[in-house]
Design goal:
The complex is a heteropentamer of chains A (130), B (501), C (145), D (491) and E (187).
Chain A: H1 2-30, H2 34-56, H3 77-108, H4 113-129
Chain B: H1 3-26, H2 32-55, E1 61-64, E2 75-78, H3 80-107, H4 113-132, H5 136-155, H6 163-193, H7 198-208, H8 212-228, H9 237-244, H10 247-273, H11 278-304, H12 309-329, H13 333-363, H14 375-378, H15 380-394, H16 400-415, H17 418-444, H18 458-476, H19 479-495
Antiparallel strand pairs in B: 1-2
Helix pairs in contact in B: 1-2, 1-4, 2-3, 2-4, 3-4, 3-10, 3-13, 3-18, 3-19, 4-5, 4-10, 5-6, 5-10, 6-7, 6-8, 6-9, 7-10, 8-10, 9-10, 9-12, 10-12, 10-13, 11-12, 11-17, 12-13, 12-17, 13-15, 13-16, 13-18, 13-19, 15-17, 15-18, 16-17, 16-18
Chain E: H1 2-23, H2 27-47, H3 51-75, H4 89-106, H5 118-121, H6 123-135, H7 140-148, H8 150-171, H9 176-186
Helix pairs in contact in E: 1-2, 2-3, 7-8
The chains are: A mainly alpha (130), B mainly alpha (501), C mainly alpha (145), D mainly alpha (491), E mainly alpha (187).
Chain lengths: 130, 501, 145, 491, 187
Amino acid sequence: MDDLITQITAHYNYWMVIILMMIGLYITISRGNLIKKIVGLNIFQTSVFMFYISMGKVTGGTAPILTGNPDEVYSNPLPHVLILTAIVVGIATTSLALALAVRIREAYGTIEEDELLTIERDAEAAEDKI
Amino acid sequence: MPQFIAQHLPILQVIVPLIAAPFCALISVRNGAWWLAFVTSLVTFAISVLLFAATFDGEIISYHLGGWAPPIGIEYRVDMLNAFVLTIVSGTGVLTLLYARASVAHEVDAKQHGLFYTAFVLCLTGLLGVTITGDAFNVFVFLEISSLATYAIVASGAKTDRRALTAAYNYLIMGTIGATFFVIGLGLLYMITGTLNMADLAQRLLEHGDSRTLRMGYAFILVGLGLKLAMFPLHQWLPNAYTYAPSAVSAFLSATATKVAIYVLLRFLFSVFGFSIPFEADILFLVVLPLALAGSLIGAYIATYQDNLKRLLAYSSISQIGAMLIGVSMLSASGLMAAIIHLFNHAVTKASLYMVAGAYAKEAGTVSIRELRGVGRDMPFTTAAFVVGGMSLIGIPLTVGFISKWYLVEAALMRGWWPVVIVIVVSSLIALIYVGKFIEAAYMHPAPQGIIRREAPLTMLIPMWIFAGLSLFFGINSSLTSEAAARAAQGLVAASSLIWQ
Amino acid sequence: MHHHLILRVVAKLLLPFILLYALYVQWHGDYGPGGGFQAGVIFAVGFVLYALVYGVDELTRILPRPVLITGMIAGVILYAGTGLVGLFQGLTFLDYNGLAADSRHGQEWGILLVELGVGITVASSMTAIFVAFATREPDIDDEDW
Amino acid sequence: MMITSNYALFLALFLPLGAAVLLAALRDMPRARDIAHVATAAITFALVLRVLSGFLAGDVAHLYLFDVMSGLPLAFAVEPLGLVFAALASGLWIVIAIYAAGYMRAAEEAHQTRFAIFFTLAIAAALGIAFSANLFTLFIFYEVLTLSTYPLVAHKGTDEARKGARTYLIILLSTSIALLFPAIIWTWLASGTLNFEPGGILQGHLDPALAPVLLALFAFGIGKAALMPFHRWLPAAMVAPAPVSALLHAVAVVKGGVFALLKISVYIFGTGYLSSTNASQWLIWVAAFSIIVPALIAITKDDLKARLAYSTISQLAYVTLGVALASQAGMIGSTLQIVMHAMAKITLFMCAGAIYVAARKTKVSDMSGLGRAMPVTFTAFLIASFSIIGLPPLGGAWSKYFLLLAAADAQQTAMIIVLGVGSLLSIAYLLPVAARALFLPAPAEMTREAPPAMLIPICATAFGCLLLFVFAHDIYGFLLNVPLLAPEVAP
Amino acid sequence: MGVIIIDLVLFGFLVLAALAILRLTNLFAVTMLAGLFSLLAASLFITLDAVDVAFTEAAVGAGISTVLMLGALALTTREEKTLATRRAFVPLICCLVTGAALIYGTFDMPAFGAADAPVHTHVGGEYLQRTKPDTGIPNVVTAVLASYRGFDTLGETTVIFVAAISVLLLLGFPNRANRRKQDEDEA
């Protein structure tokens, strides 16, 4: 029992993050709307960011901006740096995905995956008939 | 060679295309963007050849970016394996760009060319950056540069077929999930080691020993890279993306993108994880190997009933990726060598085949096998290049495909894995069916009525035949490639902590 | 576009502050939270606000396509160029130690320059992406807001 | 002679390749092209003879090109078996080249240049097989032979031709990739070399218990040897024009197959290893089966070329039987069977072609009395039939004799019976053809003999069957040179 | 303990927001919730001492990405169609397996906030000590970002550049002159 409690206090943060991640991933792979998928992907990625930032946290620490006080404890700056980069990658991916969704809507008249699949299957069937 | 260049070769490899790429977007002179891209790729190729020569004797070049010694700073680390892959990537870049001039003019709007070539060169940059780096997070950053550029250039095939858009979108979603899995895995590794430098990671993982965190880190990196390299059954993005992308892009990606992902996999499996805990090898044997075997058979099988030539080639790629993974999961020096040499051989073969498909798309207006009947007479040189590439896919002697197959079967036999030999052989027999199907249609059937087809222009034929020529040359005399592959495999073997037969 | 006058006036008043804040974030990154990327985003948000109030056309008048593309490129080149300086000084790429007389000042200069590069690229890229979406003609008529 | 043996070997291998280019260049000049084709054949034959004379004089030619993979070179070396096969292939090439020129024109076939080019390539591949110094080189040329004959089989471009050619390609390539290829790599891993060495290379490297498995991979992997059940390609390839059938069934393809098998048994396994481990015991029975069953099928075939095809399968199994018996007599019997059958079968196929060109007949039942109009053709057919059956004074008698001898040596009484039955069956399927044509009453409409360009080769090879009877002893003497033991073991 | 409660509350809101995004079909609402999600995430980052990241997440997630999302909605659709036929079973299994794997992985992780975790004792700690003497800059994140790992940041800048180039390649970017001409034509 003690073991469990130790586990919980030590890792509850990560577990919450994992739950968020999985909701995001689930939205991405289960929803059919292209925009919603992108939102899901964002949640997934943001949760991964939380995971990294959680790693960098030191209990009782402060933000890694040096104050000059030699006794000050700082959280780890490296995960922050990595995640700054990752956020940028995330927004870049999002904007590209949105642009694709817009083009798909213009070309097909829909951004629902199922309808797109039907249209493409019909197109393939038509090609086969020629 | 000036000392300056020799000293900075690793960074120049990436920074030259990175600086040159943006200017492609600015140039408005007719074909100016193409020229810049092409010249850039030539320089890149020259650099990678120099790196190849420099590492051929086993030297490992380490370059400290920003002057910070690793693991504080980011390190570029070039050994035989990187240099080999760099040469493949940049060489493919040169030839596909040469090919692109006529092909892309046909498939992409002229006013888009500046942006298109910018994205193309950045894709090249990203792939080179992934290959050359010795820092695990840097891999992710450059992987995303290349991926984003890839999605864009795949989508620019939409002028010919709107399905390029959905293909690019699916590729984006799956690719991003893959990249995120990779980042999660990396995070787990970082958590138990506190470092991101690959060499340092390997060291500290060895000291760390077994743990559930390490195991999951391994699993997530494997799945993430599996998505990127189209490992069966995570390959669903690949067929449409390669089918509807502009042909030059298909040729480029098939020869580089998945290959670089396989390289990263090799690098992580052997140089970083090094099989220090049994779990790593177990997963390889129990999960990756069966999937690779299934992929090599199912991919080939699906290819047999495709009418779209580009899609046929895409499924064949899935099968060939399976073959490479078979080599990797043998966990033997010979298996690794087979995988690495197949990396090169398949790149050369597939690039030429996609170029053939692109030539058909341009001159015959179709890549449907049914509509390409009798094309062997109208486009003799193009179709002959297909014959060479097709024989290589099957693994007929005197082509590179044979060399790959030889080493692969040899490695399997050394392990005594007869069932694996059977799978390799059967997938090559299925290749015989799908290649034969097209060759028969192209030569033995009369052309449909009222179709005018002319031979492709020289700027397409030359790169196509350089690739076809390479797949013959290195099929007849493989001493250079097999030596490079053997040394690269040796390097990986030395880096890992497996006990090798 | 004809929005409320008040909105336009408020926006006009707000905009300089947003841009000023962006500049502050840009230069203050060494000492507090912030830096090129955040500044670039704030810049872009400022332009977006401008476009929302005055119309995208007005924004593209001030920042036409060539300007934005040049900006995107300029940032990358500034960054890479700063790195190249180290190369020509016999150091490695992105080594800022040689940018000033002593290495600490060199580092400060280097960081300042590359952050500026990031800021320029991010601001112009984000603005360009926004403009690309905003200038696309919507073709929706099946639903209402 | 002006040129050295080595140089002659080099030229013999690469002249045909150069000639293929020349033929392509001459595509608009059919006459010059055909002359060039025949001339190439003649020069190649002369070169092979030069290599032969050099060998007899103790000047053993060899040629090393380069390593394809490390330790696996493309290399050629001369030894007696290969010389016999090379001389046979290049010699009969002259005959077929002349015949083909006549046939292709008379039958008004399209794409004659393409035909000549691939024909040349096929012979070049056969020579490559003959002179290969190691199993690796042999395999490469084996595959080249398959691929270069595919366009020949599919030559007519009809649905039937495509289907036949597909079967041909799929069976030959599949067996070679699925069985032969792993077998070669296995050998390579076991013994660390693939060179053809006197006495074989597997002795002491391969567990004798596994030897039958490896032999099975080789025997079935060499699909060109048409061992049942991988014989289907042979009848399927009947759709090809007659000169191609002659090439496939007499000279290059099937003979390339059984020759490869022979070479592997002698120089890879080693006759001694095979007989001491009894590894080939099972193969004797498979060969026996392949002698009898196709012969029975042949009797039921009305299409002349199909009948000849099944006859070929049956006759090839004789060679395999000789190999399986794993003795010197068996080896010599096999080699002689290759030679004798080639000479006789080429005659038969050329006759079939002549009949088709002159009378447009393909069915045996339609040929009654045709011999009166085409006496030369059918006489030649009769002579060749006797040779196949094994009657003296024709060449075929010797090969059957040596095989009987080998079977007796090995105390395989059953095989003696099989050989006898095989001969009886060959009488049953071959003699009626000539007999009906020559002795039944003539049909109403009369035809004439085929053009001389076709008749002369037919007469030449029929005469060759006779000559071989006389000179068989010389070949026998020559074959005694085949080193069956490793040098250190030999006295 | 107080920090834990704040954390839990924030996580609670985050999960609620994510679930709401999953359930809602009005994409406008989804977008707004996504912005909210980002703001909550930013708050969480602050409690975890990542001020730079929080700043960025707020600017990007709640700012620019919401704007782009709305722009995209204007060009596509505002309502997600719910189709009963969608298979949700396989994705659910995938997610559960992935999540279970991750939770399995957490059991051997260093405890949250532990100062002796490898993350803090190796490179990370070194940055904190070296930054001042090396660069004289108080914000360690900036120093690492722009100098120690400056090459990653160059890559990051390139990523943004690629994204912009790609969006322009996909959506085009009409020159003002063209647009004006278009307007005149329409008029």
